């Protein structure tokens, strides 16, 4: 039940954010005097609507987005009523049209920023000093987290009855113990522990000194065997090595909370990292198509592949089911930021395409005026329709592929 509740909540949050996107277009267009005839949440048949002034507001039967109808977005629009010629969108200054078209993305960015700030002062944001690379992790003190077993191959998976028991657990070590030496060799960091263990062989006896709750202790155990690449070449070939059956418990907290004022700076820093990550994700989209197809045809789903609204809602359901509300809201932040950036791409039919054309017209008019030639006027959108259809076709196919992968072979963050 909690999973289904999470799915519904996340889907509702997406619907609200998309509706606010359209509201951004509506409010800015009306503020500049443009004529807006329709504002609807959803698509398909009308469920309910009302007329206020010149605009019809309502709800459609298919809750998959929304739309805002601004009269005369292009010179080729033929739905301009007599007397409204001066209020059509394409006649307005380019800066006003830019604000109206960018207002949707700005709304998504605002939702993301507000959510990040709230998280910063409540649940906390990811700690920028938390170790995220192997090199950083190896500088941490050797405070251990016991594994249930030692997996013999170089893989991350659940333990089975065939796997060797953890030597650390057999030696009565506990989660949170800090190892200080192995066979007399001092261990000052997790990296020292790994280096020392690599100097031993599977089946060797290890004499371990540790500190527990401030008190020193010693124990011994027989090391198991696993497969790992060389420490100095993580992408190299794996070979048999000795294993203690422990992981690292970083001493650095994973999250940091801030005061109301300090949260603004933390929000800006986190947003900058999110922007870089979003741009990189967009650049990787073409490379992920084969991985999505592999997932759809029965292969393992790469966690780095794109997800659709369906996949995001399923992850939201998992987050609620596991009481991981921070994950829920971070998903909401990431999705809003991604949608905001995607809508600014200079491609029709998204908002960024209209903005790009408006500024192209302005630049072209400026150049023609400087060289003494007549203004060529507005861009003919009808001539751009073949390119627009190509973008729609590619985007639609990619969306269907992503949705299918999310239904058949979804990404999961928690064991269910």
What does this 3D model show about the protein?
Its main location: membrane. It is found in: Membrane. Belongs to the peptidase M50B family. 46% of the residues lie in helices and 19% in strands. The longest helix has 35 residues. Strand 1 and strand 2 form a beta hairpin. The two termini are 13 Å apart. It is an alpha+beta fold. The chain is elongated, with a radius of gyration of 28 Å. Helix 7 packs parallel to helix 10. The strands form six sheets. It has a four-stranded antiparallel beta sheet.
Considering the chains and any ligands shown, give keywords for the structure.
single chain; 416 residues; alpha+beta; 4-stranded antiparallel beta sheet; two-stranded antiparallel sheet; 10 helices; 46% helix; elongated; transmembrane; transmembrane helix; metalloprotease
Short description:
The chain is built from 10 helices and 14 strands. The protein has 416 residues and is an alpha+beta fold.
What is the typical, i.e. mean, pLDDT? 90
Kindly report the spatial arrangement of strands forming the biggest sheet.
8-7-9-10
- Which segments are poorly predicted (pLDDT under 50) over 5 or more consecutive residues? none
Give helix and strand order, one letter per element, not per position: HEEHEHEEEHEEHEEEEEEHHHHH
Supply the helix-strand structural class. Answer: alpha+beta
How many individual β-strands? 14
| Distance separating the two termini | 13 Å
Largest sheet properties: 4 strands, antiparallel
What percentage of residues falls in helices of 4 or more residues? 40-55%
- Strand content is 15-25%
Shape: elongated
